[in-house]
Backbone:
């Protein structure tokens, strides 16, 4: 098997890595089954770690949950993204995640392991969505040429990629159902850290991911029939126990990326907009999400100011081994509230909004009846209330940048010297792409250009 250099990962599970590389004697080579069993947990780790790397953190800076305090991070805070800033995060997907998911799929076909193929297809849909929502048009159908030294791939338009995301999810669900009928190559807790081989929960996660991406297409077409049908006919998350999250294993030298880059490297602090919002609403989650600053206060830093003494994310959400949430029951509830609101069902919108806020509080171990009466049990909830509450609940989840671009909420004030007085809406393409693949780069490559679904 090919072993590629890991980018930006400080600590690696050497046992997994050794099993995935050609460093053993020929007569000690792992079997395809063993390769498959080691690749899946390692790839899950890469995807979870990726969600806390710069790709996500830049998005969280632009939505002012975080704020950069030094180096390129304060430059990003001031909307000064350059092509060199996106080299590593682009190739982390293609050289690490996409490559390994493709290999898992091939091994699953070779070993007749539909459970692994189903998980790989679902994880590919999740990761591909993260990539295309960040840049818009990206390589996918020809992306295999990244592993060749000469050829560089054409880009697929985002609408085509969205069709592939839906296809991957549907194929993944079909694979999981096929796997349920056989006992061959069933993953357990070691092979599947996310769900421990629970294929029913994997199917629910697939449907929740599909719900997330259907929300973008509904926004583009201004047609919510398909997403309503999906809500009414699919097995979605039943409760918070179905959340799709990855828990980092200290025994494998894994580390939560938010902890590493804030506490060990000191790249960012919490954004002032986020702390002000929670302070103004007397939100009981403030102390859960945010650590005290040097003055014993819960205060963030405004975009571009780089206040070193501002608050860090708390250890509840960014300790050494805090799990990273990929998609949650709470997010699902907020999506339902938004969909019902936009389709004229105010009663259901109110119901799912209150359930979403309560679910977020319970995730934090908080019960506050008086606050809930005022802020959760809202009659005639508005889109601004739904999206602002979702913004708080999804702290450190880059989904909030997509929500802001789709809806305009929460109402953020751009960095004071922002070009055009706007918040960025996409990343610039990497410097390496300009040097090697410029002919294929789309014309839309400005920070303030809109991606395909960003039409409102």
Residues:
């Amino acid at each position: 098997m090919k072993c590629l250099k890991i980018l930006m990962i400080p600590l690696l599970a050497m046992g997994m890595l050794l099993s995935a590389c050609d460093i053993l004697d020929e007569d000690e080579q792992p079997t395809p089954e063993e390769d498959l069993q080691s690749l899946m947990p390692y790839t899950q780790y890469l995807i979870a770690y990726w969600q806390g790397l710069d790709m996500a953190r830049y998005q969280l800076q632009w939505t002012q949950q975080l704020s950069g305090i030094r180096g390129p991070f304060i430059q990003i805070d001031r909307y000064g993204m350059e092509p060199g800033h996106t080299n590593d995060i682009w190739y982390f997907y293609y050289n690490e995640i996409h490559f390994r998911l493709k290999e898992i799929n091939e091994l699953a076909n070779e070993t007749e392991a539909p459970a692994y193929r189903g998980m790989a297809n679902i994880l590919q849909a999740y990761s591909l969505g993260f990539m295309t929502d960040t840049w818009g048009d990206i390589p996918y159908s020809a992306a295999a040429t990244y592993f060749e030294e000469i050829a560089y791939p054409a880009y697929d338009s985002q609408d085509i990629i969205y069709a592939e995301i839906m296809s991957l999810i549907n194929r993944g669900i079909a694979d999981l159902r096929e796997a349920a009928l056989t006992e061959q190559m069933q993953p357990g807790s070691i092979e599947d850290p996310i769900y421990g081989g629970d294929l029913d929960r994997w199917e629910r996660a697939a449907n929740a991911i599909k719900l997330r991406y259907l929300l973008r297409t509904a926004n583009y077409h201004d047609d919510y029939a398909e997403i309503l049908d999906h809500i009414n006919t699919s097995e979605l998350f039943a409760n918070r126990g179905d959340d799709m999250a990855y828990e980092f294993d200290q025994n494998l030298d894994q580390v939560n990326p938010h902890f590493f880059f804030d506490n060990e490297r000191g790249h960012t602090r919490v954004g002032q907009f986020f702390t002000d919002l929670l302070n103004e609403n007397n939100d009981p989650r403030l102390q859960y999400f945010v650590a005290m600053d040097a003055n014993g206060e819960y205060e963030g830093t405004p975009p571009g100011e780089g206040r070193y003494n501002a608050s860090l994310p708390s250890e509840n959400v960014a300790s050494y081994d805090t799990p990273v949430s990929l998609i949650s029951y709470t997010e699902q509830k907020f999506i339902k509230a938004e969909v019902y609101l936009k389709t004229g069902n105010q009663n259901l919108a109110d119901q799912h909004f209150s359930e979403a806020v309560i679910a977020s509080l319970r995730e934090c171990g908080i019960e506050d009846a008086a606050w809930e009466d005022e802020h959760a049990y809202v009659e005639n909830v508005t889109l601004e209330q739904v999206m602002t509450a979702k913004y708080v609940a999804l702290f450190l989840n880059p989904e909030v940048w997509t929500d802001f671009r789709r809806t305009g909420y929460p109402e953020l004030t751009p960095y004071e010297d922002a070009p055009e007085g706007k918040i960025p809406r996409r990343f610039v393409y990497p410097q390496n792409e300009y040097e090697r693949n410029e002919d294929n780069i789309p014309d839309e490559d400005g920070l303030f250009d809109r991606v395909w679904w960003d039409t409102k």
Notes: The domain at 14-21+31-415 is CATH 1.25.40.390 (Serine Threonine Protein Phosphatase 5, Tetratricopeptide repeat).
